[in-house]
Design brief:
Elements lengths: L8 E4 L5 H12 L3 E6 L2 H13 L3 E6 L7 H13 L4 E4 L14 H22 L4 H9 L6 E8 H5 L5 H21 L4 E8 L15 E2 L2 E2 L4 H10 L8 H12 L10 E4 L6
Parallel strand pairs: 1-2, 1-4, 2-3, 4-5, 5-6, 6-9
Antiparallel strand pairs: 7-8
């Protein structure tokens, strides 16, 4: 199998579990050197170890992606370890649902912080290692594509009951994506987004399982999840690996002329 990301360096946030882990592993399979970022050290190290066990290169950077110091910290660590940055995947996130008339300011702000402000800060901090590095290459006649992939959601496109905060943040991601594509396209930096539908992760598994993120209960009531699945033309939730494949496409050379787009990965829903 040809390796489409040979020697590229990629940062993936939220890569300890679920979609992020699948992204890290497929990138590594295709030759990328990977920075596995997660809030929790144990799953991050598990992902990195799995990559190294297969002969790949991976390091971890753990911390709260919403903290003001996070973006500079991960960029500095990445460049110190690998000397460059080619791909940034803004994947970290969670949900904190409530109907609008019951939603607190804290709930609304929390979703903006992790889904919109954190990606903005990371992209801004990546500028010296992506935009400025590309300018120097172009001056030398070198064409080298770099990729930014942001994770949106069908909720950001269509809205969703109980998710005014999440939907607003994910809609903002679309605007951010399209703006970066316009600003940085001239530097051979492609910025695209994926909008996931129902993907099988701990955020969408039955709420009765008792999963939580940052102390917030996550998941969907089992009856509601079943109803969602039946409304999907393919009659099932997507697998994390299937979601990761869309991110891989946008990070790989296959997408060198795809820019400012939102790829819907939802089994045919909301077409």
């Amino acid at each position: 199998m040809s390796k489409m990301m040979e020697n590229q360096v990629a940062i993936i946030t939220g890569a300890g579990r679920g979609i992020g882990r699948e992204v890290a592993e497929i990138f590594a399979e295709h030759g990328a050197r990977v920075v596995v970022s997660d809030r929790d050290e144990a799953p991050a190290e598990e992902t990195a170890a799995a990559i190294r066990d297969k002969g790949g290169e991976a390091i971890t950077y753990c911390g709260d992606v919403t903290s003001a110091e996070f973006a500079k910290g991960i960029m500095d660590t990445t460049v110190e370890a690998f000397g460059r940055l080619d791909v940034l995947v803004n994947n970290a996130g969670y949900t904190w649902d409530s109907l609008i008339h019951k939603m607190t300011d804290e709930q609304f702000q929390a979703m903006l912080d992790i889904h919109l402000i954190a990606p903005f800060r990371l992209i801004r901090e990546a500028a010296p290692h992506m935009r400025e590095a590309a300018k120097k290459e172009i001056e030398q006649g070198i064409t080298n594509y770099r990729k930014i992939v942001n994770v949106s959601s069908v909720a950001g496109i269509m809205g969703n009951v109980g998710q005014a905060n999440y939907s607003s943040a994910k809609a903002g991601v679309v605007g951010l994506t399209k703006t970066i594509a316009r600003e940085w396209g001239q530097f051979n930096i492609n910025c695209n987004a994926v909008a996931f539908g129902l993907i099988d992760t701990r955020l969408t598994r039955p709420k009765e399982n008792g999963e939580s993120v940052n102390g917030v209960a996550v998941g969907i009531p089992e009856k509601v999840r079943t109803m969602f699945e039946q409304a999907i033309p393919q009659k099932r939730a997507g697998e994390a690996k299937e979601a990761a494949a869309g991110i891989f496409y946008l990070a790989s050379p296959l997408s060198n002329y795809t820019n400012g787009q939102v790829i819907h990965i939802n089994g045919g829903s909301y077409t």
